[in-house]
Design a protein that fits this description.
With 150 residues, this protein is mostly beta strands. It has one domain: Immunoglobulin-like (Sandwich), CATH 2.60.40. The strands form 3 sheets. A 4-stranded antiparallel beta sheet has the order 4-1-10-9, with no helix packed on it. Strands 3-2-5-8 form a 4-stranded antiparallel beta sheet, with no helix packed on it. A two-stranded antiparallel ribbon has the order 6-7. Strand 9 and strand 10 form a beta hairpin. The termini are close together.
Length: 150
């Protein structure tokens, strides 16, 4: 029996100003294990070990527009058929599309383009992760477990 995880996301922009405000960004959904199977050199398990992306989606929302999307993540496809429902989470992060020039090691000048995270939330199986970061932006993430015999 395969374990499938259904990820449901809802993002909405609610403009609180008189001027309409659109949003352009990139929604990335990370599938992680809170107690990771991966270990460091001291054989300690990492926390929130990354298993894969469930979603990597460009987003262009108009003022007051809602984005609802669902992704199916099958651990079997990525070599993680042994994942446990009590040790799996989805972390949804909305990255701004405007790059910011940053220095990785100030003042050494290791320049790169950073894309700031404007919003993030996470959820485990059958729980809702919701986070309102500002009066004009809210988002939720919900993770369900499903099974398939195919």
């Amino acid at each position: 029996m395969k374990k499938l995880f259904v990820l449901i996301f809802s993002f909405i922009i609610l403009s609180s100003s008189v001027l309409a405000q659109d949003y352009t960004g990139n929604l990335k959904v990370f599938v992680v294990e809170p107690y990771s199977r991966f270990q460091d050199a001291n054989l300690d398990h990492y926390k929130f070990g990354f298993l894969g992306f469930a979603l990597d989606l460009p987003v262009d929302l108009k003022d007051k527009e809602t984005l609802d999307t669902t992704a199916l993540w099958d651990g079997n496809i990525y070599g993680y058929g042994d994942i446990q429902s009590d040790n799996i989470m989805a972390q949804a992060v909305m990255f701004n599309s405007d790059p910011i020039v940053s220095d990785a090691y100030p003042p050494n000048g290791y320049w790169f383009l950073a894309y700031y995270a404007d919003a993030a939330c996470q959820a485990g199986i059958n729980e809702i992760g919701q986070h309102q970061i500002a009066p004009n932006f809210t988002h939720t993430v919900y993770l369900e477990e499903g099974t398939s015999s195919g």
